[in-house]
């Protein structure tokens, strides 16, 4: 096999001491979980994590999964070579040929070497020079550039073998899932909220999700779509508990008793109230939404303020700093985009008023809610909430 080992780089700059060892332990745990059922062994050595890939599995498939483990900065497939200079040279040429295979322009490179085994007859600079010279003689159209090479070939000389690697495949970075506590994601069927959930996962949050469903105004297929999105998020989270709230009664009450231009604001205030309640039950410490700042009624700052007023929980909005193209790029990358764009209606679109108020004030919202029995509506919705748990399905990759 070309590669039998994978080097995993991790760690945020500045994580030290106990936090660092917790980080490492959590990350190893998550990697083991992510690779469950595969023929691999996960090890820690030299402040790095290594994954040994057995006969039954292909390193490329292992990398495909590691690419999405929060906390991993990058991975490299590693070739193990006997401690013999001729073998090392041969492997270096093979790896280099493979890497430049697709490149049309001449490639620049440098060799970096590290010698942990002081018995090896050549020093690190000598290894780098020897390999560099050998590559130049055996591969046409490559040049050395020590400052800004297109690729770096690493050679690590260890006690019993040498490791050669070059490819660096970026991971998501961030923190291992579970390192920061639990959050509750308001998951609609749209493009944004699954991306917001992924961003929270990347910062180490353990994810649960809540969805407001308005059957029969919205179809079972709309609910299925959200379940599919939760399932995709479970690939990265390991597990996602989805709370499905039956929102129809609340919406009917709003339609009957509140001024139409404030119905969206009030509906969202109810979403936050119910989410707040369920978050407390589930010991989640923050809500997460896919909101960003914009022109539409529910996303002006005034509107956000008025909606947010019903909860004291932190509401994380990881997408405020991103623009739509960036959000779409991430949605495609994590695999939620295709599901998100399916055309099933959302509960908000159904009740969309003709001219919603774009800058609703808190006192206006409170006044508009006067004829509602807020507590019983919330209580009933919470009591009737259904919970579905999605575990990572390894075949889903
Ligand atoms: N039916 C719902 N169930 C749960 N959360 C919802 C629902 N509708 C909206 N939300 C939450 O409110 C946020 C803002 O919703 P809105 O429809 O204004 O924006 P959006 O940009 O279309 O978001 P998305 O693409 O996630 O649907 C969503 O990102 C989501 O977090």
From TrEMBL:
One GO process term, biological-process aspect: thiamine biosynthetic process
Subcellular location: Cytoplasm
Family matches, as CDD domains: PPase_ThiI, THUMP_ThiI
Residue ranges occupied by any THUMP domain in the UniProt entry: 60-168
EC code: 2.8.1.4
Keywords: ATP-binding, Cytoplasm, Nucleotide-binding, RNA-binding, Thiamine biosynthesis, Transferase, tRNA-binding
Metabolic or biological pathway: Cofactor biosynthesis; thiamine diphosphate biosynthesis
Catalytic activity: [ThiI sulfur-carrier protein]-S-sulfanyl-L-cysteine + a uridine in tRNA + 2 reduced [2Fe-2S]-[ferredoxin] + ATP + H(+) = [ThiI sulfur-carrier protein]-L-cysteine + a 4-thiouridine in tRNA + 2 oxidized [2Fe-2S]-[ferredoxin] + AMP + diphosphate; [ThiS sulfur-carrier protein]-C-terminal Gly-Gly-AMP + S-sulfanyl-L-cysteinyl-[cysteine desulfurase] + AH2 = [ThiS sulfur-carrier protein]-C-terminal-Gly-aminoethanethioate + L-cysteinyl-[cysteine desulfurase] + A + AMP + 2 H(+)
Chief place of localization: cytoplasm
GO molecular function, one term: ATP binding
UniProt binding sites for ATP: 186-187, 211-212, 268, 290, 299
CC terms in the record's Gene Ontology section: cytosol
PANTHER family linked: TRNA SULFURTRANSFERASE
NCBIfam families from the UniProt entry: tRNA uracil 4-sulfurtransferase ThiI
Protein family membership: Belongs to the ThiI family.
Task performed by this protein: Catalyzes the ATP-dependent transfer of a sulfur to tRNA to produce 4-thiouridine in position 8 of tRNAs, which functions as a near-UV photosensor. Also catalyzes the transfer of sulfur to the sulfur carrier protein ThiS, forming ThiS-thiocarboxylate. This is a step in the synthesis of thiazole, in the thiamine biosynthesis pathway. The sulfur is donated as persulfide by IscS.
Name by which UniProt lists this protein: Probable tRNA sulfurtransferase
Native species: Collibacillus ludicampi
């Amino acid at each position: 096999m070309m590669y039998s080992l994978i080097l995993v780089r991790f760690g945020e700059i500045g994580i030290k001491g106990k936090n660092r060892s917790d980080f490492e332990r959590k990350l190893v745990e998550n990697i083991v979980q992510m690779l469950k059922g595969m023929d691999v062994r996960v090890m820690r050595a030299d402040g790095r994590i290594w994954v040994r890939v057995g006969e039954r599995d292909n390193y490329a498939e292992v990398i495909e999964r590691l690419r999405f483990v929060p906390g991993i900065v990058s991975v490299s497939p590693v070739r193990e070579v006997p401690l013999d200079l001729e073998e090392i040279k041969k492997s270096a040429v093979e790896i280099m040929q493979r890497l430049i295979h697709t490149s049309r322009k001449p490639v620049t490179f440098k060799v970096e070497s590290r010698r942990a085994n002081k018995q090896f007859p050549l020093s690190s600079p000598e290894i780098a020079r020897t390999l560099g010279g050998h590559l130049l003689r055996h591969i046409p159209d490559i040049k050395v550039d020590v400052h800004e090479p297109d690729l770096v070939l690493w050679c690590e000389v260890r006690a019993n073998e040498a490791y050669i690697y070059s490819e660096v495949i970026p991971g998501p970075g961030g923190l291992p899932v579970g390192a920061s506590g639990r959050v509750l994601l308001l998951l609609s069927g749209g493009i944004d909220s699954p991306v917001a959930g992924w961003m929270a996962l990347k910062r180490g949050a353990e994810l649960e999700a809540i969805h407001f469903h308005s059957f029969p105004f919205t179809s079972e297929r709309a609910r299925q779509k959200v379940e599919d999105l939760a399932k995709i998020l479970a690939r990265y989270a390991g597990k996602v508990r989805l709370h499905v709230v039956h929102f129809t009664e609340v919406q009917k009450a709003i339609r009957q008793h509140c001024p139409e231009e404030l119905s969206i604001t009030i509906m969202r205030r109810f979403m936050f109230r119910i989410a707040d309640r369920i978050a407390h039950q589930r010991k989640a410490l923050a809500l997460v939404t896919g909101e960003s700042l914009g022109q539409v009624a529910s996303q002006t700052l005034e509107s956000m303020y008025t909606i947010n007023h019903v909860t004291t929980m932190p509401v994380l909005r990881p997408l405020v700093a991103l623009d739509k193209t960036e959000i779409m790029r991430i949605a495609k990358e994590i695999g939620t985009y295709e599901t998100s764009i399916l055309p099933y209606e959302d509960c908000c679109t159904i009740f969309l008023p003709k001219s919603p108020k774009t800058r609703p004030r808190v006192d206006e919202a409170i006044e508009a809610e006067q004829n509602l029995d807020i507590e019983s509506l919330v209580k009933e919705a919470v009591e009737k909430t259904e919970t579905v748990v999605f575990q990572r399905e390894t075949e889903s990759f």
